[in-house]
Amino acid sequence: METYLNKGIKEIIDQFPEVENILNEYDVGCAPCSVGTCLLKDIVEIHSLPEDREQEMMTRIAKTIYPDREVEVPKIKRKIEAKPEELKYSPPMKKLVDEHVLIKRWIALIPAVVKNLDVESDEGRQLILDGVEFIRYYADRYHHAKEEDVLFKYFDENLEILQVMYEDHKTGRNHVKTILEALERKDKATVAKHLTAYGELLTQHIRKEDEILLPWMDRNLTDRQIGELFSEFNQTDEQIGYSPAKYETFIDRLEEQYKQ
Ligand SMILES: [Fe+2]
Ligand SMILES: [Fe+2]
């Protein structure tokens, strides 16, 4: 079993496809991950399931890999013991989780924006430009900059979980670029397609951060690092020099507009 713990998850799934279903049942699905070179033991450690659930899941995986043998399931070593109770975040992580709320409000508006999409009138086009500005300045520069330029620097940037986050941010930026180009050509279908894809991408991305990445980071940072991180976040916000209030007003206005 130890051999498999140190194997890449995608390789295991290729060999034993049933393992993917088992992981999904325990919400340890790696389907949303786009890179896919995590080791089995890392996945188990990062998701930090309650001990009994983890043992149960590992036993099922072991039975799938070795159907004819009794295999002893090793306990995954954790740097810090898991806290199975509800998610509690340190102040800097809480700040990121709180910022996600405004992004999620925007994502919730995307279906209505797409339904009423008008790329012909100035007013209709301005709405998309405003939405793109929200994504570029609030979601990307204000929020993702704190993740990429500050938080991720505390960890090994080659870690699969961080590579996945970088990849998602990059994919998001590409959607924005495509939306703007399509808007220029008044290509309604492409604007709609990439706006929708952006919403789906960010929904999964925020879920991964809120439920997996940020709690895992909290467990692996010292109190001193958490303090440092918080003050660095505040400095970054000051350097950026604009307040999120403007973007809250934009979202409030849209919510009002599309209120049934
Ligand atoms: Fe992110
Ligand atoms: Fe985020």
List keywords for this structure.
mainly alpha; globular; 11 helices; 260 residues
Write the layout of secondary structure elements.
Blueprint: H1 2-5, H2 9-15, H3 18-25, H4 40-47, H5 51-65, H6 91-115, H7 122-150, H8 160-184, H9 188-220, H10 223-240, H11 245-257
Helix pairs in contact: 3-5, 6-7, 6-9, 6-11, 7-8, 7-10, 8-9
The protein binds fe (ii) ion (FE2) (2 copies).
Helix content: over 70%
Q: State the helix count.
A: 11
User: How far apart, in Å, are the first and last alpha carbons?
Assistant: 55 Å
Helix and strand composition category: mainly alpha
Bound molecules: fe (ii) ion
Q: Biggest β-sheet: count, sense, barrel?
A: none
**Low-confidence sequence ranges:** none
Residue-averaged pLDDT? 88
Shape: globular
Would you report the number of β strands? 0
Order of helices and strands: HHHHHHHHHHH
Describe this structure in words.
The protein has 260 residues and is mostly helical. 71% of the residues lie in helices and 0% in strands. It has eleven helices and no strands. It has helices spanning 2-5, 9-15, 18-25, 40-47, 51-65, 91-115, 122-150, 160-184, 188-220, 223-240, 245-257. α6 (91-115) packs antiparallel against α9, α7 (122-150) runs antiparallel to α8 and α7 (122-150) packs antiparallel against α10 (223-240). It is globular and about 70 Å long. It starts with a helix and ends with a helix. The relative contact order is 0.12. The mean pLDDT is 88. The structure holds fe (ii) ion (FE2) (2 copies). One fe (ii) ion is lined by residues 144, 147, 165, 169, 205, 209.
